[in-house]
Amino acid sequence: MNAQKLSQRLQTVATFVPTGAIVADIGSDHAYLPCYLVQADIATAAIAGEVVKGPFESAVRQVQKEGLSEKITVRLADGLAAIKLEDHVDTITIAGMGGPLIASILEKHPEKLQTVTRLILQPNIHAKAIREWALSHQWAILDEEIIEEDDKIYEILVLQKGTMQLDEIELLCGPKLIQRKAPAFVKKWQREQENWQRILQSIEGAEQTTDIETKRQELARQLHLVEGVL
Q1: DSSP 8-state symbol, 2
Q2: With contact defined as beta carbons under 8 Å apart, do 23 and 43 qualify?
Q3: Of 11, 76, 128, 176, which sits 20 to 30 A from 209 (CA to CA)?
Q4: pLDDT score for 107
Q5: How far is CA 59 from CA 40, 156, 206, in A?
Q6: DSSP tag of 111
Q7: What are the Cα distances from residue 105, in Å, to 78, 97, 211?
């Protein structure tokens, strides 16, 4: 992977960036995504934010190598602290982290979202945490995608400002993804079902405490919910 040829995961994220956007890529690593977006004339300018010094330095080198220092600013900062209001960022991408971590990044600096109209989020796990954050912060799901790459399954959530209602299964699995039932979606939730069934079997012989019974009921309910959409 490089700035000209992204992974399928990042390429899918890129397809949701509006033409003419000013993008902040949080947790940018080598800054491949912002470099690609600017070179492809999708983004007019970008911020590459990185909290770890090593990846930050890699991003700086990459931007310089691509000759994009005038259009891409690399900042060493924690999450959305990389964004300044005068940047006029309208699109934020956060890819390759857990859903709860992405939600906590969005939660930490809400003032940085004032000019933002689109969030493109790619959690590696627990996308539900992002849907829960969106529900409670007046963001709505514009689109969702699910892909398989190198035997790993990734979800991409695209949010815009607005309100929405999600029931329990939509919160867990994603309303757009449920509608489409792509092969990667079916595979993901079949894997989850198998994992939950293994856990249920392992706790059958355990001492039946209140916590164990609560866990058993939760797993049984999730199995029932997912069975209804596959």
Answers
A1: -
A2: yes
A3: 128
A4: 96
A5: 18, 23, 49
A6: G
A7: 8, 10, 30
